[in-house]
From TrEMBL, chain B:
Residue intervals of the Rieske domain: 9-110
GO molecular function: dioxygenase activity
Highest rank taxon of the organism: Bacteria
Record's protein name: Aromatic ring-hydroxylating dioxygenase subunit alpha
Length: 63, 341
């Protein structure tokens, strides 16, 4: 089992850390993919696009 | 579609509120009547007589039966009608809905939705409210605002700095970055704010007796739709939990909210403060109860004003969200998912 597959079978947890001293948000998907952004709306959009993070659709708003 | 998540547990009352008298409450737009049966358990029935809609909470008891105060229709705790006036035949449809009820952690939870799928194992827990070693103060304030506004409010505590200065707010709350975690499987939103070497707000300085700078943790755990837990840790700065997890040198307050929608634009704001310090000190209890109620009322004024703003704004108004809203946005999404289920 690859690392990614192992993570996929673990809990579905999304994490966003706001880096101290900056405006940057660091997001970690449950699949292990990571992303940087300065806007929580864009960050959630990227995370919730799993597994298609690369093709994250800017037009689809999750709320 | 209703604006409320259905097939969910909601807090309808505190345990001590439900006794021999008939208590009327509205949860998610559904009028309920609660009372305590002779065996000590709680019954919840629709608060509307099947005959002419008279609220059953305005009737009276006959043992465990409820007698409508208008024409005398009499109901069992199951909702079945046992008597109708002046005739022997009881119509087949003479029944009012009964709601599943669970008493847990000093709270009375009711199931809003299909009773067939009610699972008592899914009631979220707040054990500090009913545990040895903890002292609790509590209250309930009615809100003239939709429940989502209270969720927004509680998921972003940076507002403490501006709305609750002099009580729980200090400049560092708004200035400290947060970590947000969403567990999709458990359906929980976590928001952590860990402050080091910061000013102690009056709320904690006076209640804990800690003098000088503190380390302050605010760890939010929101179980949508109804239960919000704020695990608050206060310690003299530099005092850390031991390697074995022992944290007895710190003070802990478990701030609990039950966010119960009443109607689309009104909410019951149940608030509780459980503490593991000064547990026998009545003066501390009085101070915390008074201070927290003041804080909650500050929120009530703000959220009631927001509800009025929303009622008069043009359709399609676009809010602006920034980093402090990361957890609130997650909570909104989970709530929307629950509504759409």
């Amino acid at each position: 089992m690859s690392d990614v597959t192992a993570r996929e079978t673990a809990r579905t947890v999304y994490t966003i850390r706001w880096s101290p001293g900056s405006d940057r948000l660091h997001g970690v998907c449950h699949c292990g993919a990571e992303h940087e952004a300065e806007d929580p709306v864009l960050m959630w959009r990227w995370l919730l696009a799993h597994p298609d993070h690369e093709a994250c659709d800017e037009a689809s708003r999750p709320w | 579609m209703t604006p409320f998540p259905r097939n969910q547990w909601y807090v309808a009352a505190y345990r001590d509120e439900v006794g021999d008298d008939l208590l009327g409450r509205t949860v998610c737009g559904e009028p309920l009547m609660l009372y305590r049966l002779q065996d000590g358990s709680v019954a919840a029935l629709a608060d509307r007589c099947v005959h002419r809609r008279y609220p059953l909470s305005m009737g009276h008891r006959d043992g465990d039966r409820i007698v409508c105060g208008y024409h005398g229709f009499t109901y069992e705790p199951s909702g079945a009608c046992a008597y109708v006036p002046a005739q022997t035949r009881i119509p087949r449809t003479a029944r009012v809905p009964a709601y599943p009820v669970v008493e847990r952690d000093s709270l009375v939870w009711v199931w809003i939705g299909d009773p067939q799928v009610a699972d008592t194992a899914t009631v979220p827990r707040a054990p500090w409210l009913d545990s040895p070693g903890w002292t609790v103060v509590r209250g309930m304030e009615p809100l003239a605002a939709r429940y989502g506004l209270l969720v927004d409010n509680l998921l972003d505590l940076s507002h403490e700095t501006y709305l609750h200065g002099g009580y729980i707010g200090t400049p560092e709350v708004a200035e400290t970055p947060i970590t947000t975690e969403v567990d999709e499987d458990a359906r929980i939103v976590h928001v952590r704010r860990r402050m080091k070497d910061v000013a102690c707000p009056p709320f904690y300085a006076r209640s804990t007796g800690i003098e000088g700078r503190i380390d302050r943790w605010q760890d939010i755990e929101y179980h949508p739709p109804c239960l919000y837990l704020l695990h608050s840790r206060i310690a003299p700065t530099g005092v850390e939990p031991g390697p074995d997890g022992d944290d007895s040198a710190a003070c802990h307050a478990e701030i609990v909210y039950a966010i119960t929608p009443e109607t689309e634009t009104t909410t019951m704001d149940f608030w509780m403060v459980a503490r593991d310090f000064a547990t026998g000190d009545e003066e501390v209890s009085r101070f915390l109860a008074e201070s927290n109620r003041t804080v909650v009322l500050q929120d009530v004024v703000a959220l009631n004003a927001l509800e009025k703003v929303i009622a008069t704004e043009p359709a399609g108004y676009q809010e602006l969200s920034i980093n402090i809203d990361t957890g609130g946005l997650a909570a909104r999404r989970l709530l929307r998912k629950l509504v759409e289920q």
